[in-house]
């Protein structure tokens, strides 16, 4: 599920004609959004697995997790299987992560998984496919660890670490509970995830997942006025650095976001972006920069 857009993935939004089919929505007009992303099926039993997520260089901007003996696998929402360079069609690989209680990593866990033979993306040793498939990484974790076929991603917005950056995220495979980090009183966010917008499979020809915002979009509690008809679809991907919106939604959205942001941090736009802000003038939080919340 995708709850309201509330955590630490830095995406951009692009537009498409209101009458354009979802399979033709890939015209880039980006802005910045913060997002917590999760997808889930029915829970079983056992302990979920936890791993950190890092974001690669600007040339690739791929999200990776150290799942192969500490070596990175690219996390791909659209890929149906685990892949790695090998000969033949499939091979068996040993993958590893930490078990978790939703608050802390507990102990290292290694397990065998079936991988499809394919070339690895630059800077990685393979791909952890997250699409709905019996060969996907979440499905194989569920089968070997006796946990739910589910995952939650908190994606980092940049490749930097420390106070000035937001360079490390987290992935949990196998269900909740999920807790916020200190210094808060560590409330569970499992309920927030369960009340989210359904995360669906990609349209034909387009990578990633999508959500249908049946209740519209609101920025800091103020609904964005949209005049077009048809499903309000938001396309998501971990391998393409843009989310997608219809053009009749994109324009009022960035207008409302710009109004909510104010002008104190605004700087001259750099293509392909229409709105740009000086991050040094934005207050950091544990969810990323303090910017208007976007809700569906």
UniProtKB/TrEMBL annotation:
Where in the numbering of this chain does the Xylanase inhibitor C-terminal domain appear? 209-294
Q: Where in this chain does the record put each Xylanase inhibitor N-terminal domain?
A: 87-174
Question: A single GO molecular function, which one?
Answer: aspartic-type endopeptidase activity
Which BP terms does GO give this entry?
proteolysis
The family classification in the record reads: Belongs to the peptidase A1 family.
Full protein name: Peptidase A1 domain-containing protein
UniProt source species: Aegilops tauschii subsp. strangulata (Goatgrass)
């Amino acid at each position: 599920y995708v709850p309201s857009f509330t955590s630490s993935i830095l995406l951009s939004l692009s537009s498409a004609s209101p009458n354009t089919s979802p399979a033709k929505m890939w015209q880039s007009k980006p802005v910045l959004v913060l997002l917590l992303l999760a997808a889930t099926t029915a829970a079983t039993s056992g302990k979920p697995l936890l791993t950190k997520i890092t974001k690669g260089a600007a040339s690739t901007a791929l999200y990776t997790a150290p799942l192969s003996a500490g070596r990175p696998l690219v996390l791909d929402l659209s890929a149906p299987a685990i892949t790695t360079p090998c000969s033949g069609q499939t091979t068996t690989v040993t993958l590893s992560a930490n078990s978790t209680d939703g608050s802390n990593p507990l102990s290292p866990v290694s397990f065998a998984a079936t991988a499809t033979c394919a070339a690895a993306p630059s800077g990685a040793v393979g791909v952890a496919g997250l699409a709905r498939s019996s060969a996907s990484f979440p499905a194989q974790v569920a089968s070997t660890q006796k946990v739910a076929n589910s995952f939650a991603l908190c994606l980092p917005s940049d490749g930097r670490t420390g106070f000035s950056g937001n360079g490390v995220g987290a992935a949990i495979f196998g269900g909740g509970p999920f807790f916020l980090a200190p210094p808060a009183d560590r409330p569970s966010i499992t309920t927030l995830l369960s009340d989210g917008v359904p995360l669906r499979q990609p349209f034909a020809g387009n990578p990633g997942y999508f959500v249908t915002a049946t209740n519209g979009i609101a920025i800091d509690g103020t609904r964005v006025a949209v005049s077009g008809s048809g499903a309000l679809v938001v396309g998501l991907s971990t391998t393409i650095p843009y989310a997608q919106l219809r053009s009749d939604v994109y324009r009022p959205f960035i207008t409302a976001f710009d109004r909510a942001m104010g002008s104190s941090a605004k700087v001259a736009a750099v293509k392909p972006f229409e709105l740009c802000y000086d991050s040094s003038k934005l207050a950091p939080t544990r969810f990323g920069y303090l910017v208007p919340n976007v809700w569906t």
